[in-house]
């Protein structure tokens, strides 16, 4: 199943996207997708993100592939929904998108074994985890001024359940800027797989239902400019649209 | 009443916002934390008679490298790899929701770890949405103050986020309550004392901060909005004590209260 969260008619509601660009609300009302404002499909307490989890992206940034997952946290101030706008700060030289498969936790997860990992996953959505590289500093890198800026992490458009996605380690990721394909990857190329990550993270911390793991981005990060339309697409999930301003 | 006794009274008896275990909502009460009593609905009882829950908090962020003594100790390393130069922007870290812990609840020492660093910190609890605040009016967005015990597995490197060392379940005791800023002494005059098993081991105050919290609030909210209930905290890690299983840590701050937590060994250990 697919589940979205939207603002409609002065309230916030869950919604199920239908194939025809329409949305089914819980009370049976059907609305057109242009009548709603898309919100992040989940409100996580904790967002765990991965740095350098694709060997080709690590190489692109001149890093050796890490031996242990490189984790960092993000605040919910970063999240915006599908079709939202993200600000490129004035005067910066390099701001790039990062198309990432986002894992949504479904059950309290503590000391989960990799073999049972999928039992703890509600579903998946798409995150575009922008980075402003001008602000990189070598302290708790990637530091918050790079990765925790307001509204720099579009999320959505919806969550697709684990059952409907099937194998999350066999999905194509693509990013388009103004319609041109600029990034292409495959979730099977992650250095640390989703089951491995869930075992690793929950070996030392407890995740709650609704928490997110952003699993990193493959090669192909290029600069974006105000006015650009950036589409992050993941097979079997959808297309997440964002505008740079 | 002389000025001195007025100040002493003001430091020990404070109106606070607190949360009792098992109750959904925060309540307002008067505490005399030196005398060890709390007055709820005009009934006074011992603070220890109650089970406490952590204050309702949203995102909890620490500002690193604000302790001047820590900065000076690192000064040489900052010009060498992997840092290469001192940081220009704020160095932040997050203590996620799983780390939040309450007054008098145990902190579990992970198996295979002998000691934890227990750094006292002053927490600023945000009162209203804070975006691009100016240093002059920064405290307008602050509801009040609380005590944070910023526990971590000791680690030297600050190059990568110290997630595994800082984000363990229960590693951020906070509370016991929040004191509205109007109810207590000025922020700049707050001081902290850390006791381990009743012995005073660390005495610190805000003069050791490289920059005042008001300035950091401006720097942080320049790029990230803080919401009501979020906490920005400032610690004194340079001479913070190391503790082991069986120790009891107590952080006292005049004008706020005392936050106490026992350190306990993990049951079963790795193989459970």
TrEMBL record, chain A:
<dbReference type="Pfam" id="PF01557">
    <property type="entry name" value="FAA_hydrolase"/>
</dbReference>
<dbReference type="InterPro" id="IPR011234">
    <property type="entry name" value="Fumarylacetoacetase-like_C"/>
</dbReference>
<dbReference type="InterPro" id="IPR036663">
    <property type="entry name" value="Fumarylacetoacetase_C_sf"/>
</dbReference>
<dbReference type="GO" id="GO:1901023">
    <property type="term" value="P:4-hydroxyphenylacetate catabolic process"/>
</dbReference>
<keyword id="KW-0413">Isomerase</keyword>
<dbReference type="GO" id="GO:0018800">
    <property type="term" value="F:5-oxopent-3-ene-1,2,5-tricarboxylate decarboxylase activity"/>
</dbReference>
<dbReference type="GO" id="GO:0046872">
    <property type="term" value="F:metal ion binding"/>
</dbReference>
<dbReference type="GO" id="GO:0008704">
    <property type="term" value="F:5-carboxymethyl-2-hydroxymuconate delta-isomerase activity"/>
</dbReference>
<dbReference type="InterPro" id="IPR012684">
    <property type="entry name" value="HPA_isomer/decarb_C"/>
</dbReference>
<keyword id="KW-0479">Metal-binding</keyword>
<feature type="domain" description="Fumarylacetoacetase-like C-terminal">
    <location>
        <begin position="46"/>
        <end position="244"/>
    </location>
</feature>
<protein>
    <submittedName>
        <fullName>Putative 4-hydroxyphenylacetate degradation bifunctional isomerase: decarboxylase</fullName>
    </submittedName>
</protein>
């Amino acid at each position: 199943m697919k589940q979205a969260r939207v603002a409609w008619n002065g309230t916030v509601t869950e919604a199920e996207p239908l194939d025809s660009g329409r949305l089914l609300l819980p009370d049976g009302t059907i609305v057109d997708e242009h009548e709603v404002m898309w919100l992040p499909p989940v409100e996580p307490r904790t967002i765990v993100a991965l740095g350098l989890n694709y060997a080709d992206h690590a190489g692109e940034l001149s890093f050796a592939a890490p031996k242990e997952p490189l984790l960092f946290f993000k605040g919910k101030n970063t999240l915006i929904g599908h079709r939202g706008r993200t600000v490129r700060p004035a005067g910066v030289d390099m701001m790039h998108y990062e198309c990432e498969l986002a894992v949504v936790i479904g059950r309290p997860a503590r000391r989960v074994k990799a073999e049972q990992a999928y039992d703890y996953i509600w579903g998946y959505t798409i995150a575009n985890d922008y980075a402003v590289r001008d602000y990189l500093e070598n302290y708790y890198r990637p530091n918050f001024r790079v990765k925790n800026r307001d509204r720099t992490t579009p999320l959505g458009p919806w969550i697709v359940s684990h059952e409907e996605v099937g194998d999350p380690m066999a999905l194509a990721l693509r990013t388009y800027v103004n319609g041109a394909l600029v990034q292409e990857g495959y979730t099977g190329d992650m250095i640390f797989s989703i089951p491995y990550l869930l075992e690793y993270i929950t070996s030392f911390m407890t995740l709650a239902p609704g928490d997110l793991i952003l699993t990193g981005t493959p090669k192909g990060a290029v600069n974006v400019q105000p006015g650009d339309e950036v589409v992050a697409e993941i097979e079997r999930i959808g297309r997440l649209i964002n505008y740079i301003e | 009443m002389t000025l001195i006794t007025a100040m002493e009274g003001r430091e020990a008896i404070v109106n606070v916002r607190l949360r009792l275990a098992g109750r959904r909502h925060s309540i307002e009460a008067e505490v005399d934390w030196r005398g060890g009593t709390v007055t709820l609905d005009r009934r006074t009882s011992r603070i220890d008679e109650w089970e406490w829950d952590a204050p309702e908090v949203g995102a909890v962020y620490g500002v690193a490298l604000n302790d001047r003594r820590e900065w000076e100790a690192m000064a040489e390393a900052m010009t060498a790899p992997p840092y290469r130069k001192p940081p220009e922007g704020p160095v932040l870290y997050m203590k996620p929701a799983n780390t939040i812990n309450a007054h008098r609840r145990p902190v579990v020492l992970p198996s295979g770890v002998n000691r934890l660093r227990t750094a006292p910190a002053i927490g600023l609890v945000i009162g209203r949405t804070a975006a691009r605040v100016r240093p002059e009016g920064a405290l307008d967005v602050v509801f009040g103050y609380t005590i944070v015990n910023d526990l971590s597995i000791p680690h030297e490197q600050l190059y990568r986020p110290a997630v595994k060392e800082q984000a363990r379940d229960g590693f951020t005791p906070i509370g016991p309550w929040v004191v509205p800023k109007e109810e207590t002494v000025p922020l700049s005059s707050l001081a902290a004392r850390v006791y381990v098993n009743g012995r005073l081991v660390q005495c610190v105050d805000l003069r050791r901060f490289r920059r005042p919290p008001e300035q950091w609030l401006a720097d942080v909210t320049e790029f990230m909005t803080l919401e009501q209930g979020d906490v920005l905290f400032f610690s004194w890690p340079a001479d913070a004590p190391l503790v082991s299983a069986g120790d009891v840590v107590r952080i006292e701050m005049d004008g706020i209260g005392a936050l106490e937590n026992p350190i306990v060994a993990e049951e079963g250990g790795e193989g459970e």
